[in-house]
Amino acid sequence: MLFHTWTFVIFFTITMSVYLLLRRHTNCRLLWLLIASYVFYGWWNPLFLILIFYSTSLEYLAGLMITDTRYKKTWLTICVYKKTWLTICLLNSIFMLGFFKYAGFFTENLRTLFIILHIPLDVPVANILLPVGISFFTFQSMSYIIDVYYKKVKVERHFIRYASFVAMFPQMVAGPIERGRNILPQLRHIPIIRGLDVSDGLSLFLIGLVKKVVMADFLAIYVDKVYNNPSFYDSTTLIFATYAFAWQIYFDFSGYTDMARGVAKALGIRLMLNFNNPYTAVDIGDFWRRWHISLSSWFKDYVYVPLGGNRGFKYKVYWNVLLTMVISGFWHGAAWTFIIWGGLNGLGRVLTIDLEKSQFYLKIPKIIKQLLVFHFICLTWVFFRAANLSDAMLILKKICLFTNVSPEIPVFLFGAVGLIWIYQLIFSSKYKWLLENSFVRVGGMVTALVLFLVFSTAANKQFIYFQF
Amino acid sequence: MRKRRIFSSNTFRLNFKELAVTGAVIVIGVLFLLPFVWSKAENIRTGSEFRISYDSRDDYWVYKKWADKAAEEYPVIFLGDSVVWGMYVDSSSTLPSKINRRLNRQVVANLAIDGLHSVALEGLLKYYGGAVKNKTVILHYNPLWMNSRKYDLSDDEEMQVHHPRLIPQFSPKYKCYTESFSGRLNICRERNIPFFSLLNHIRLAFFNNEELNQWMIDNPYKTPLSQISMTVDPGEKEKKNSSESWKQKGITAQEWEWVPLDKSYQWEAFTNVIKLLQERGNRVCVMVGPLNPYMLTPASLNKFRKLQQDIYTWLKAHKIEYVPVPDLPTEMYADASHPLDKGYDLIADTLLLSPVFTPYINRGAALCSAKK
To answer: Would you call B214 an interface residue with chain A, using a CB distance cutoff of 8 Å?
Structure first.
C-alpha cells in the first residue's frame, strides 16, 4: 500500500477513526494499531507477515530472556546466558537479511569466482523475493535488542506493544528507523492528539506528497531515460541527469518520511526528523548528519562506536569511518555499485576530516563549500543509480570527456529544482524569517498542491527506498 | 505570542486556519472556478457537418461543450457509435450530414463517437451529456456489441474495453474490466470534478495525449504554456471516403454466438440510456442496425434474426418508436456494421421515407422552431 494512493486514504480514514475511538483504551488501541500495521504490510504480500511475526516473536522472547536472569546463580552464567540470547537474535536478523537480500549477490559472485578460477562447479543463482522494508524493520529490531542488552532501554513485556513498535505502519517499510527508547514510551501512554498535531501531520503529509508526486516522479522520468541508455547521451546531459537523480532520491525518500511523520503525528506518535536539507551541507560529515539521519545515527551507534569510533590513533579512526560507510553502502543494496558508493563516501569523509577543521576551509565562502559537497555527493550517486559497474564507469568516462552534442536538459524541471534549493539555502540562513510569513507559507502550499493536482493523474510510482 | 517551534526542514507548518484558507483556494478557485472560466474563454470550433475527431474521442470535455452547443442549435440529436459517426466516410458523408442535406437545413447534430458501446453511452450521457434534454433524439443501436460475450462485456476474461472512463467503475461490476481501485477512483474524480476533466482535455488537445511531465522531458526547451491556445478545433479532418467493401478486404463469414437479450449487459445499458433520455424529457426514436447479414454463417444469421425480433418486440412493448434499418446490398458494407458512402445514402433515403422517422424529425424541428 502506497501513501499516495486512494487505497491508503481509505485505509487511513478507517484506521484513524477507530484509533481515536480506542484512544483511551491502551490495549485495544495497540491491538488496533498492530492489526492496521499488519494489513498495511500484508497488502504487498500476506506471506511477508509470517516473516515479521516470527522475527518479532523471537526478539520479544530474547528481550525477556536477556533481562530475566533470576535463575542464574553466578555472574559468569548470567553473562553467557545474556550474550547467547543477544547472539541468537542478531544472527537471526543477519541471516534473514543475508537470505532474502544478499543470497543472490553472494551466489552470483561465487559463480563468477568459480568461472575465473576454472572450478567446474555450477552454483545456482538464488532468486528470492525480497520482502518490502526488511532492511528497515530488522535494523529497528536489532537496535532494540542491543539497547536491551546494554540496558539503554527498558525491556518491553507487553507483546502487542512490542509488535506494534516493530510493525508500526507509518515508518515500517522505509523508515525512519526508530529506536525503542523513542517509540515504546509513546506507546505506553494515552496519545495526546491536539488540533496542532493533526494540522502539523496534515502539513507534513501534503508536503511529502508533493515531493513524491510532483518532483521525484517527474525527475524519475528524466533520470530513467538517460541512465537506462547512458551511451546515447553527451556529458552535459549525463551531468544533469546525475543532478536530477540526486534530487530525485532526496524528494522520493524525504517525501516518504515526511508522509510517515505526518501520519504518525496525526496518531499522536512523534517520529524523528530523517532529512534536514542535506544539499545545504557544508562538509561531508555535515551531509551525513542531514541525510537519512535515522540510518546514519544507527550506524554511528551500532557499528562506528563499537568499532572504536573516534578513539585511538588517527588511522584507526579513518578505518572505522571507511568500514562503517562500506557497510552502509552494502545495506543499501546487494551490488558492487552500492559498496563502491559507500566506500567513496567513506573515502571522501576520511580525506576531508582534517581539512574541515583547517583555517583554510573555514575561510571558504559557505556557498562554495555547499556546491563542492553537492558535487562530490553527485559523483557518488552515479554508482548508486547506475544499473551496473560498467554503466557507472561509462557515465563517469563520458562526463570526463566533456562532449556537448545536443544536450537534453528539461529547463523547467531544473528551474523548479533550483527554486527549491534556493528556498533551502534561505531556510538555513539568517533570512529564514522571510519564509515564515503566513502569505509565503499559504501561497507556497497552494502552488505545491496545484502542481500536485496537475501531476496526480500519473502518480503510481513506487518509492526508491522500498527496494532496500 | 507563542514562539513557533522549528518544524521539519521547511516552514510549511500550517495551522487549521491556514489549511482552511489553502483548501478553500484549491476547492473554489482551482477545482471549480478555473474550469468554469476556462470553459467560457475557450472557443471550440464546430461548423456544419461537425463531428468529434477520432483523436479527440476520449476528450469528454470537448464532448460536453459540443453537446451543450448542439442542444442549443440543433432540433435533433443523433447518438450512437462509429456507424453514426461515420467510420469509413468523410464528415460530409455521415448519416446525420446526409439527412441534413436531404432536408436542406441543419436539423440533425452528430453526437456520436467512435467505439461508443451502450455501456459507455450511458456514462457519457450521465456525466457529460446533461444538455441533451427536452430534445428529439435519434438513438442508434448497434447489435454488433452483442455478437459475443466479450464485446457484450459479460465475459469474465480481461479485455481492453472501449471508453473505459465512461463505464460504471463500481456497480455494476464488469469482470472483464480490471482497472485498479485507485484508477477507478481517479475516473470517478474526473467525472465529478471539472478540473480533472479539463486536465484531461488539455493533455489530449495540446500535449499529444502525453502526461505533462513526460511532455516536458520529451520537449526539454519548449514552454508548456506556449502549447495552449484558447481555440480548439476538434473536428475530423483526416477521414476520406473509402470504397473498399468487406469482400474486397478479404473478410470471411463469421460464426458469432450472439448474447440473448435478457442476458446482455449492452442491451441492459441501452435500456437504461432510453430511460435516462426519457427522464430528461427527450423524445426518443431508436434506429436498429445496420448489420451486415452476408458476413454471418447461416446458423449465426438465424440467431441474429431472432435477436433482432426480440429487440423490436421489446421496443414495441415499451412504446418506443423505432426504425429498423433494412439489409443493404452486400457491396455497400465496409465490414460487419459500417456502411460505405452509398450505403449511408440508402439508409438516409430509407429513413426519410419511413412513416415513423420523417414525422418524427419534422416534429422535432417544428417544436424547436416554436420554442425559438
So the answer is: yes
